[in-house]
Amino acid sequence: MHRNTLIGWAGTRPGRDPVGQEQRQAMARRDLLNVSLVAALCALALIGVMLVLALAYDPHPSQERFEVVSDPEAYASALRAGADGLRAVLFVDSLFLLAYATAIGFAALAFAGNCRAAAWVGGLGILLVAALDMFENTTMVQSLDMALISGGVALDRIAFLASISAIKWQVAAATLLAISFVLPSAATLEKVLVWGVRLGLPVAVPLFVHGAFGLREAGGLALLVSMAGGFVLLALVLRAHAGEA
Asked: Domain residue spans in the chain?
């Protein structure tokens, strides 16, 4: 009798309570979903802020203008002309990269059970994208300072910055492709998100980076639409799952 009592007590200790463990796991997952949701909404808001800044300054500042190789004189002239606006956009973009890395990274953690290998690839990939984005922003603002101090920017430096940008965008496309295998895909909205992620950047990035078919500008617009639309859909999916968790 005494032995049975001990066995029963051992089976119900807090550390071995399967129900309690499931509850803690559910709470942890809900926390991941909520953090990802807040970060996705912040990322969406920051995209809006960058659009407002782009319209508020004349000439309109655009990072994409300086992410491709172009004539050094025209490049430096454009940097000088849009200096104030570009600095403001780069400031907001530095906040944006923190938001998108958090949103996508925490979403990968929350849904990791769907495909752990893809979650690892996507989680590490988005950290690499954020690091490349930081490097790109730093290089761009240094090029701006050089243009203001010396009046010009060397072609080699322009090509170097374009290479960083191209690698960043292509790593981002590959990362999101991996993330698409982690995201849930049962509901209609989830399917739209998954296929939007699989097709959005993977199609838009080569158009922008390579200027294929003369569609570089269209590719840049497609990047913007893909990112904004993706965060809207991600926020809706995260909200639904956070409510169920």
From this structure: 25-244
Q: What is the pLDDT of residue 62?
A: 84
DSSP letter for 151, please: S
Please report, as a single letter, which amino acid is at residue 191: K
CA gap 183, 163 in Å, rounded: 30
- CA distances, 45 to each of 108, 131, 227 (Å): 21, 21, 12
* Contact indicator for 143, 66 with CB cutoff of 8 Å: yes
Residue 167: how many other CB atoms lie within 10 Å: 16
Q: Among 13-17, 141-145, 151-155, 187-191, which stretch is predicted with the lowest mean pLDDT?
A: 13-17
The more confidently predicted of residues 193 and 65 is: 193
Q: What angle do CA 156, 151, 143 make, to 5 degrees?
A: 45
pTM of the model: 0.87
Distance of alpha carbon 76 from alpha carbon 152, whole angstroms: 5
Percent share of the chain, pLDDT over 90: 79
pLDDT digits (tens, 9 = 90+) for 169-209: 999 999 999 999 999 999 999 999 999 999 999 999 999 99
Q: What is the rounded CA–CA span in Å between residue 56 and residue 85?
A: 8
The alpha carbon dihedral of 50, 54, 57, 63 has a sign of positive
Nearest to 236 by CA among 44, 26, 97, 29: 44
Residue whose C-alpha is closest to residue 127's, from 89, 107, 98 = 98
Distance separating alpha carbons of residues 74 and 97, to the nearest angstrom: 28
